[in-house]
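Sample 3 of the quickstart, ligand 2'-deoxy-thymidine-beta-L-rhamnose:
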Amino acid sequence: MSFVNQTPTSLALFCKVVDNYGDIGICWRLARQLQHEHGIAVTLWVDHLPSLQRICPEAAIDADVQQQAGVTVRHWRGQAMQFDVADIADIVVEFFGCDIPEGYIAAMARREPRPVWLNLEGLSAEEWVEGCHTLPSSHPRLPLTKYFFFPGFTNKTGGLLREASLGERRRQFQTDPAASAAFLAQLGVTAAEMRALKVSLFCYPHAPVAALFDAWQAGDAALTCLVPEGVAADAVAAFLGAAALPGAAATRGALTVRVLPFVAQADYDKLLWACDVNFVRGEDSFVRAQWAGKPFVWHIYPQDENLHHKKLRAFLQRYANGLESLIAMSLHWNGAAGDDRAGWPAVWQAFHADMEKMTSRALEWERKMLENGDFAANLIAFIAARRVGILENKV
Ligand code: TRH
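Result:
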């Protein structure tokens, strides 16, 4: 990115944690990538530091300012915070329409040159995204324009977040069985559990986990289900007959369920790489599963009036064409196929029988997604063009 002076371009990324770990998960990943791969001085403003600490255990929960992995992390203490023009970054990014403080916006308008301002939106496979990607929106009173930037699955969107080194790191890990065994052993997984079909499970509490456990338990082949602490806690505790705490495990029939500690974000990739099938949810783990080269099942974030079923179908239409077993599993898992508890063994068996096909699809999909470029690089290219416009007083 060519800017007029030599000081690193500064970028402020505002993250409001609505719930769970996806908001901070995406912002933390993007912040590090912009710093590491694009040399940008990133400040991540986050309103809930304990959420950051969950995925980045080194983070302090009581610091106004801290440095983590090359990123300046600042505690966003609410809308009343005041700012000077000197506080304003060259690029201002708000995640998911999180409403940055009025005082910050007012100082943005006083700054020369004015910052490039973007709103990062959530991921959806629906077609309307292409029409809204990069649309400008003028501030009603101030001389500022905000642009909407969407991740997505086509070259008319911003693409998906993916670090440049990811493919090579995954290749090294997946071609070194000792690395995978050492990683799982360190999480408490036994050698016998590693020999079974390994499934990682990350879903929302309403997922039909008990029904799936029943199907696995009655299956012919050993299956190890690895569940991070706090995930599907009631169903897992019911299976274990004990609290779902890290280290807890039980075997019934063909199924062993083991509770893992919630791992740091980089280690979550290794868990996906080490397992044979991954159940993921929300946005960030959903994208990471697409980079794992393994079959995966998505539990989509629920929305009112089952709007999420439309989004799920939009994704399946792009991804799962011809893979009926994956479509059936996804619809059942997301409650879009009616309440069919008795049907679960057949749904699982069909899915299991198609694992090879699904692995090929995962690799094919990955290659296709790579053609769209990565989200951070696409974002930087878009910003660079706007920045030139601002400097030439054209925007
Ligand atoms: O946690 P999520 O459900 O997050 C979100 C939010 O609910 C958000 O409001 C909503 O908009 C979005 O979903 C759709 O799921 P997600 O997006 O997969 O984020 C989880 C993050 O947690 C991801 O960065 C991976 C990380 N993680 C770890 O670091 N360690 C772990 O052990 C696990 C299981 C996950």
